[in-house]
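To assess whether ligand presence alters the predicted conformation, the chain was also submitted together with nicotinamide-adenine-dinucleotide. Input:
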Amino acid sequence: MKILTNYIDGELLPTDNHLDVFNPAEGTVYAKAPRSGEHEVNCAVEAATRAFVKWSRLSASERGEYLLRIAQKIEEHSEALAMAETTDNGKPLWLSKAVDIPRAAANFRFFATAIQHFASESHSSETVTNYTLRRPIGVVGCISPWNLPLYLFTWKIAPALAAGNCVVAKPSEITPVTAFMLSEICCEVGLPKGVLNIVHGYGGEVGACMTAHPKIPVISFTGGTKTGAQIAQTAAPLFKKISLELGGKNPNVIFGDCNFERMINETVRSSFANQGQICLCGSRIFVEESIYDKFLEHFIAKTRQLKIGDPLKPETKQGAVVSHEHMQKVLSYFDIAKEEGGKIVCGGKAFQGEGRCEGGWFIEPTIITDLGPHCRTNQQEIFGPVVTVTPFTSDEEALTWANCTPYGLSATVWTENLTRAHRFARDLQAGIVWINCWLVRDLRTPFGGVKQSGVGREGGWEALRFFTQTKNVSIYQ
Ligand code: NAD
């Protein structure tokens, strides 16, 4: 059994209390992670506070050197990290290899170099020169979810460190293994002690302590909207700076004039990639009536071809969902959808794995039709391999329905009509809009949601601005 440790003040520290870590493809416990509490959070904050004095005074390129070494080590250990991510999360191994681990390395590489181009502004007049300093803030708290474990964990840590802060970070207790391996990498590259601290444990324990800690003035959080609200409630009276990347219920609007073949292939991906457990998956598909029947026929046929099962097999397109609890939640929506008058035209039940995966948590990719845009199935985030398909008759109707949830993370539009594409890009209530593509990412672009999908933006300069505080200096000549 693999026993994980915390990483505090440069040391891999064991704890007495542990929590179980499951392999979702088998439904078995295969590792134990520290169940930390206030004591461990306090030790981490003290270590980070001490480390901040020196770390924040290193030059951007000196800090960048450390981050580049971490990126390189992630690449060197990529096979082991990908295997760990798949074992921990249930996602297909090819996906961990192609996306999760390379992106974790890219996060460090990107911010290691970006920080060296992060310039301050100056504004001069006849008598006064103003320049704006962007200073590191201190100890920042980073809290991340289970769906893209190392990818999202490093997406916060890398810019926070590049900007000169020290970090106390908490990965999801459901998928903690690659975060632990990152702490081993930090030891390997000789990251100065206390600069990054990784404390494992439950959200309501470690996460809540971090959020309430008076010496953590910044919290960067990715996770559910409900948790985000709790964090905001604790952080607001403490005047903390917060960034919240929350849930979504993203629309995928498909017009009759689209490039059908490209659209259908990408729509299968945007619906079911990572078992639909990507905050950016398009879970509400709106299709122009003229191509509705054709769309449904092809979409169902392609979805049925997705091979479900052992995430280690290269032909597997759908691995396990992350936990038994999550599987139950997703399955419960099939009953809700039926009660609401929905028709399940593909999938709609758990999938029985074979061999070592007999006890695993698998769900058939599921397509539901005949639901109105305002029902629970179409309003609440399910976060699994489930989409609804609804026909529309006009641009106005499609836009109204696309915008009719409390969420606003991302949206996808398929059309060859340039004017319509621009109009939808302008009017969709979303932080990210993809036209004729999905999940095309450029790390320089702002990333985040509107409405209940979040507050603030990650990525590029936005992240470096978030992790620094500005100070304007005026000099009279
Ligand atoms: P979650 O909110 O349950 O947990 C996220 C993290 O917060 C975990 O590390 C958890 O331990 C911690 N946490 C839980 N309660 C806490 C508390 N009271 N105080 C502080 N920390 C606490 O979310 P999840 O189930 O791990 O992830 C799925 C959710 O994340 C979905 O809603 C998904 O849309 C969202 N998500 C959003 C983005 C984005 O960029 N907007 C990206 C990925 C996932």
